Amino acid sequence: MTTIYDVAKKAGVSHTTVSAVFNDRAGEVSEETRKRVLAAAREMGYRPSRVARQLATGRSNIIAVCFEQTVADAFSSPNSGRLVAAIGDAAGQSGQYLLFAPTARKGSLQDLIEELAFIGVDGAVVIGAIELKKATLEAIDRCPVPIVCVDSYFGFRHASTVDVDSAAAVRKGVTHLLHSGHRRIAYFGPPPSFQCHLDRLRGFHEAAQGAAEAGAEFETHTVTGGKIREALKERLGRPGRPTALVCDRWDFGVAAWETVTGELGLRVPDDISLLLIDALPGEDHPGQGVVNSIQPTPVEMGRQAMSVLADILSGKLTTPVNIRLPAKVTLHPSPAPPEPRLAG
Length: 344
Fold this sequence. Notes:
The chain is α/β, with parallel strands linked by helices. It has three domains: 54 residues, lambda repressor-like DNA-binding domains (434 Repressor (Amino-terminal Domain)), CATH 1.10.260.40; 132 residues, Rossmann fold (3-Layer(aba) Sandwich); 131 residues, Response regulator (Rossmann fold). The protein is built from 13 helices and twelve strands. The protein has a six-stranded parallel sheet with strand order 2-1-3-4-5-11, sandwiched between helices. Strands 7-6-8-9-10-12 form a six-stranded mixed sheet, sandwiched between helices. Strand 3, helix 8 and strand 4 form a beta-alpha-beta unit. The radius of gyration is 26 Å and the shape is elongated. The mean pLDDT is 87.
């Protein structure tokens, strides 16, 4: 079997020079020498041992991408796909490899995080919202492997986070509805078991504070996803119905569009205006151009997450950071109907 010493003899250099070439210590070797070593290695069929390299450098060049879903579920969302693609591009540019680590086999994100130190990765990016469970959050914070979470939770002492500024985006959207003349605005979303939902609710309530003093009315409805249609029909079928809806999460937005336009026969935005978090599916959807939307910026989130992780691994960053990126907010004319008609 060809060894590092054989390659060194063939290239006419020391074995430490060969080691420098294969361990990415470019500053120690001239470009001409590097090419000569690589040519000798190819000619002799030499392949460096990843285990030996890790022992020598203390680095594996492997980044774990963790998510609390099956692989199929994680990649079924276009935003998740773009996020992972951006992480992969950044890893490729820095010579790193990605290890996809879903929790399907382990059963929980906490179990997966607790094993990161034993699977030989340099760092990890946790994607997808993290349920606000004390045990999971503590496992992330005490993990010896550097972690960047693409999630809104900002209470970590050691882990860093990257996300869009959901609260600011919702404030902007609700302010747009108020300036358009809406005075009865309702929020529909799931129970806030994730930080992103808490942030969106906070943005809604902050926008409502000053407007409520001027006579505007605000409602908050938290329901499970399976009951969103029934909740919408019940509220919109009563007098004094809202003239604008804010819908948290993509499935709530889809259910709201189908319920309002299909089952209740209301027109958007003539009878009711919608502000959806995440976009309606498909560029040819009839809601495009009339529905207001707040969308994440997954490509920029992935790039930022990998940039933060790179700074941690290089020693440039020694304290955790919480980066909040602007969301993509798309607003359209949303006239408030002078006398809202009841659904049906």
